[in-house]
Design a protein that fits this description.
Layout lengths: L1 H4 L11 H9 L4 H4 L3 E9 L5 H8 L13 H8 L3 H11 L9 E2 L5 E6 L1 H8 L21 E6 L3 E2 L22 H5 L5 H7 L3 H4 L9 E6 L6 H9 L10 E2 L13 H12 L5 E6 L6 H12 L12 E4 L3 E2 L5 H16 L3 E5 L3 E3 L10 E2 L6 E11 L5 E6 L12 E11 L19 E4 L2 E4 L6 E5 L4 E5 L2 H21 L9 H9 L3 H4 E2 L35 E2 L1 H11 L3
Parallel strand pairs: 6-8, 6-9, 7-8, 9-11, 11-14, 12-16, 14-18
Antiparallel strand pairs: 1-3, 1-4, 1-5, 2-3, 10-13, 14-15, 16-17, 19-20, 21-22
Helix pairs in contact: 4-14, 12-15, 13-14, 15-18
Length: 568
């Protein structure tokens, strides 16, 4: 269990990190619950056309198709599975014992169905109740219609989805004013706004209005605490609309949840966001299937107020090696489907340092290793008295805690080839000898806990400190939201997949004007080799490195650079 827990990147509040990891991974036993069990199955259908290629084209600033995104109906007309293949899937699964209602995503590229463990074994060769599922197969009658199959771990059928969270017990230590927030010693929203030059965008009246962000989580939260948090800093409470996928709801607990961190980090820099939508999936059924389930939900406007999100902020990931090839291919296609419709996806690179998946053969974290995702690493941040950045270095505690440390995740992918756009100062053959594959992360932001981000949870924890790449990712997503708001105000469309744009800016003369290059520190789990030499890969350097990517964003300069690249 401990080895498996290390594969999941979920850090928010230091005092309860272990508990959160355990919560996300403990499998449910039919014998313990006494309830009937279900499993989520996702089927990637054979589609028309090449949506992955199209998504790459509309995300490429050098392409004539750049930012010419499709609506959901246009995507369905161009890339859906054929009507006959959809019927084959529906007819095969309908009226079978132990099989629920078949759901298709709006693009008609993927089907979702819940089944009993017995039906999963009979239809999809899913042996055992836990992951990883060995020997998953496509039913013979669906060959030619279905390309990928993903089977989740068992969960109690009685766990129903709900849009309303169970209220948490009032916190007896509810602070008066902001006194308790100040005592944490954490960064306030105003401090981070100045540090990352976000205040320049705020001064233009940009606050995230009109922008919709969707996040991934495993637990419903009590939303009343957001009012306390926002009131402390003189901001409106974030507008939160919670959505649950099959098996994805747990009762609101008293321990701080990463969802709290995600929402408050987003609102710290973009307090006017139109909507933040956490989609809750059963992370205890195995992350690979849960991620696909989340992406399935994110592609459905009906689950998100009638419109697709503008941005996905994903503070979770798992080593590529934990995915089967079909699952990775399906995940990549779903991310491409989002990008083709203008959605910008960001994901945490992980908190386990350089090559945190332990061997180069294990690869980087997914989904951050996808070409359609902006991978976010972490930094330590020191501020001057005027809150400008004094020093930004690689976030890592391995030097002081060699066996129990954490640090900015990164490294080469074991599954994805190096995209043509990933060139920049600092990227050369010496960075990854031999096979050239996708490198992570792309960007970085504040991830430390000392100090970290000031957060408030309405459970027993009250005021605390949030950090990890779980904080860096939504903070960066908030900066992108402000940029996108400026683009919308100028009559320009969404941004879609960001990495081609980012690396194009990184190669330009304005690199150091747009990015804060991080040149100090290392995320290596072994800070020095036996010979006392600097470690490769995770060492910060001029330009790109696999600890902080291109560096952190200078928000106002990034927004202006984006505006200058595209004609009205």
């Amino acid at each position: 269990m401990a080895a498996r827990a290390l594969l999941i990147r979920r850090f928010a509040f230091p005092a309860v990190v272990a508990g959160l990891v355990a919560l996300a991974l403990v499998p449910t036993s039919a014998g313990a619950s006494g309830q009937p069990m279900r499993r989520v199955v996702l089927l990637g259908l054979k589609v028309q056309g090449t949506p992955v290629r199209f998504a790459a084209q509309v995300s490429d600033p050098a392409s004539a198709s750049y930012r010419k995104f499709l609506t959901p109906s246009q995507f369905r007309s161009r890339f859906s599975a054929t009507t006959s293949n959809q019927k084959r899937v529906r007819n095969f699964l309908s009226n079978r014992r132990g099989v629920g209602k078949v759901q298709f995503n709006p693009g008609r590229t993927t089907a979702l169905v819940t089944v009993t463990p017995k039906a999963a074994k009979h239809l999809f060769c899913a042996k055992g109740s836990k992951l990883p599922v060995k020997g998953t197969c496509k039913p013979a009658r669906l060959r030619g219609a279905v390309r990928q199959v993903s089977v989740g771990e068992s969960y109690p059928a009685g766990r129903k989805g709900s849009a309303a969270a169970t209220p948490a017990k009032p916190n007896g230590g509810t602070p008066q004013g902001c006194q308790e927030a100040v005592k944490t010693g954490a960064f306030t929203p105003n401090q981070l706004s100045t540090a990352y030059e976000v205040e320049g965008l705020h001064n233009r009246g940009l606050d995230g209005s009109g922008i919709r962000v969707t996040t991934l989580s495993s637990q419903m939260v009590e939303t009343s605490g957001f009012k306390t948090w926002a009131g402390c800093f003189g901001m409106p409470a974030p507008k939160v609309s919670q959505v649950a996928m099959p098996g994805g709801v747990k009762d609101t607990g008293t321990a701080p949840d990463e969802t709290v961190l995600d929402i408050e980090a987003l609102a710290s820099l973009a307090p006017g966001l139109e909507r933040i939508t956490p989609i809750f999936v059963p992370l205890d059924q195995g992350f690979s299937n849960s991620l696909l389930l989340f992406l399935f939900g994110a592609l459905d406007p009906a689950r998100q107020g009638g419109e697709l999100p503008d941005i996905l902020s994903i503070s979770d990931g798992v080593c590529e090696i934990r995915f089967t090839d079909p699952e990775l291919q399906l995940g990549q296609r779903l991310l491409a489907e989002l990008s083709a419709q203008g959605v910008t996806s960001l994901a945490a690179s992980g908190d386990l340092g350089f090559q945190g998946c332990f061997t180069s053969a294990s690869g980087a974290m997914f989904p951050s290793s996808s070409r359609f995702v902006t991978s976010i690493g972490g930094t330590d941040l020191a501020l001057n008295t005027d809150n400008s950045i004094s020093l930004e270095s690689v976030w890592s505690t391995y030097a002081t805690q060699p066996s129990q440390g954490v640090g900015s995740g990164g490294g080469p992918s074991a599954r994805w080839a190096r995209p043509g756009f990933q060139t920049s100062p600092g990227i050369g053959p010496e960075l990854q000898p031999g096979k050239q594959t996708r490198l992570a992360p792309d960007l970085a932001a504040m991830a430390s806990f000392t100090p970290g981000l000031s957060v408030y949870d309405s459970g027993d924890s009250g005021w605390g400190v949030g950090g990890g790449t779980s904080a860096a990712t939504p903070l960066t997503a908030a900066m992108v939201a402000l940029t996108l708001q400026q683009e919308h105000a100028a009559g320009r469309p969404n941004l879609g997949s960001l990495p081609p744009l980012l690396y194009g800016l990184g190669r330009g003369l304005g690199y150091q004007a747009i990015f804060s290059d991080v040149t100090e520190g290392t995320s290596s789990r072994k800070p020095k080799s036996a010979a006392g030499q600097k470690p490769s890969g995770g060492q910060a350097q001029f330009g790109y490195d696999m600890a902080t990517g291109l560096g952190s964003l200078k928000a106002v300069d990034f927004a202006d650079a984006v505006a200058g690249l595209v004609s009205p």
